[in-house]
Amino acid sequence: MATILVVDDDPSVGSSLKDTLERAGHTALVASSVAEAMTVLAASLRDELQVVALPSLNVADAEQVLIQRALVASNQNRTRAAGLLGISVRTLRNKLNAPRERAG
What CATH number should be reported for the domain holding residue 36? Predict the structure, then answer.
């Protein structure tokens, strides 16, 4: 099964989701803030990691944070980073170019 990172500032919600996910056979990691999630993510980034929630970040920003963390974890190797994120290298390239396209 998958390793899933749950981020919620309410400890009871995080705990409840962790219990539910573990009963379903997943490994659940819990963080109470985005900063804590990034620490947990950097420490345990694996191919099967899926992010469930990142409160206080919109999806595009959370995606960029995760892409940057995967690049750091893979020593800037885009092929490995794409594998860590579960996306193709082409998709990774498109997502890396997306912020520049929005700004320009």
Answer: 3.40.50.2300
18-49, pLDDT tens digit by residue? 988 888 888 888 988 888 887 777 676 654 44
Q: Could you give the strand order of the β-sheet that contains 3-7, starting from the edge strand earlier in sequence?
A: 27-31, 3-7, 49-51
Residue 51 near residue 28 (C-beta atoms within 8 A):
no
What is the reported pTM?
0.47
Instruction: Report the alpha-carbon distance of residue 84 to residue 50 in Å, rounded.
Output: 10
Q: What is the DSSP letter of 52?
A: -
How many domains does the chain divide into? 2
Q: Write the burial class of residue 58 (CB in 10 Å: 0-12 exposed, 13-18 middle, 19+ buried).
A: exposed
Residue 17 has pLDDT above 60, yes or no: yes
